[in-house]
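Researcher: Next entry: GNAT family N-acetyltransferase (Flavobacterium chungbukense).
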Amino acid sequence: MIKITEAFVEDIAKIQEIAHITWPITYGEILTAEQLHYMLDLIYSDEALTRQIQNKEQLFYLISDSESLIGFIGIEHHYKNEAITKIHKIYLLPETQGKGYGKVVFNSIEKLALENNSKELLLNVNRFNTALNFYKKLGFEIKETVDIEIGNGYLMEDYVMGKGL
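Model: Predicted structure:
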């Protein structure tokens, strides 16, 4: 049984713990160790997460199974003032892969999006991330290719993927 509950500032350490477990596995063969460390600090520092949560830049949710915390998501409804829910972050522990949890989480995101009058889901995925195939199986399609400068000379080389609701 998967449980998805809203996360608050007091849950930042839990979000950081999952990020620090999943990122090296997800991006270890794609990014240099320096870029990985830089991005984790940029996106998951106490300050960055506090700002995102307190200013409601993203809504964070913790994902648990019957035994423990297994992941988190960060989403934004009304992205760019449109009927779009943007999935900024979705990370599940590696040992959950292949158990159907990802599909359950995406179904929950779709439900939240529809409750907020969204007509589309959007997400960015690194062009070399193996999750690309999973997103395609869920009905996401590549909408565009983007290179996003994030400082220190680093780029995020992503596909923007979308799925109509």
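Model: Note for the record: Strands lie at 3-6, 59-64, 69-76, 84-92, 120-126, 141-151, 154-164.
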